[in-house]
Predict the 3D structure of the following.
Amino acid sequence: MEWALIIEMIMEMIMECRENRDRDAVEAGLRDPGLRETVAMRRALRQRGFRGRDLREAMDEGIATLREMPPAEITALMDQAEERRAASAPAPE
């Protein structure tokens, strides 16, 4: 899977996780992906049309990428996801 797709998938996963958890909990989950992160990543991949072996391979690659990321990159991804989330939020009336 190409790098840009992995990052986009992780961004979607972060935004989905942020709906129910605070930033620190999501960031900790990205450093050590657990069930919530796995489910969010799987959902993002299935929405992009991944199925079967392709889904499994993309999941393995995505989780491996998260585990290899240094904390500074995870923090930068969190910042980008926060900006994207704020930009997509409806404006207050």
Q: What stands out?
A: The chain is about 80% helix and 0% strand.
